Design the sequence.
């Protein structure tokens, strides 16, 4: 997300003694105390007016309609225009079914990565949770063989809760 400048001397942070950490903490407190509207650059946002018709909490559709999603190099926004959810998640295991029940579709916000085969970002109807979806889980068999001994038992689910 694009942000406005905050007070403090960011250059003083880059030293071995940690001098400037108080300035960073002060800057962080300042940023966290600001309304979101002051922290985003509107020209770097993609507004989603269609979200008003979605079955998500009012705070969620208002944020998408009025504040939008950030324009980022690896995020491709493609919010759906229909009122009904369109994404069908791959519920490959009980892990994924913790986030959403079988047969439920999500609202499409776009994808994170170089293509649609990367993480797809969706919103759960009803509660408005944001999930990142993969076409299928990633397991140790999906990584180069030389790395497998270091990642025994690796399992990245097809759905990951984002908020």
Sequence:
């Amino acid at each position: 997300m694009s942000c406005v400048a905050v007070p403090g001397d960011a250059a003083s942070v880059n030293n071995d003694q940690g001098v400037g950490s108080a300035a960073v903490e002060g800057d962080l407190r300042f940023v966290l105390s600001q309304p979101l509207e002051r922290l985003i650059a509107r020209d770097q946002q993609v507004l989603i007016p269609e979200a008003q018709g979605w079955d998500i909490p009012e705070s969620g559709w208002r944020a998408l309609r009025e504040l939008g999603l950030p324009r980022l190099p690896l995020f491709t926004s493609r919010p759906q225009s229909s009122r009904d959810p369109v994404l069908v998640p791959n519920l490959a295991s009980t892990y994924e079914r913790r986030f959403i029940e079988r047969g439920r579709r999500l609202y499409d916000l776009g994808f994170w990565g170089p293509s649609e085969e990367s993480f797809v970002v969706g919103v759960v109807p009803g509660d408005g949770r944001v999930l990142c979806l993969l076409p299928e889980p990633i397991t140790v068999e999906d990584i180069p063989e030389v790395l497998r001994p270091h990642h025994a038992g690796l399992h990245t689910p097809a759905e990951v809760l984002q908020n």
Observations:
- DSSP finds three helices and nine strands in the chain.
- The chain has two domains: 10-39, 72-161.
- The chain has a mean pLDDT of 77.
